Amino acid sequence: QKTAYEIKECDWSSDVCSSDLLVRAQRIVCELYAGLNLEHGEIPKNMRRIYLFVLSSIGLGDKLNLEAAIDAMATIRSGFLDIRDEAIQLERSGAWHTVDREPTTLIGAIG
Fold it and tell me: Would you say the pTM of this structure is higher than 0.85?
């Protein structure tokens, strides 16, 4: 399996690279999108817009723009990593409910 940075460097003329990896990326982003609850304010609504942009940039739109999609997802990953320690602390203190299982996220897929 390739990371996002390997995908960025990939020869997109390759059938394997252009189809299998794009389909995998589309599925991951669709799962992230499906997990949003828009009733929780502006953040999920903004995430929805970003995920729609990414989906349109990785082959579900008119123009393929892989670099922009990878940059958007890398920014999201960075943001999640920035708040990870605080989230763990809030879970441990009981301020947040703990998650019973590890969610499948793009974070693991891109690096």
Answer: no
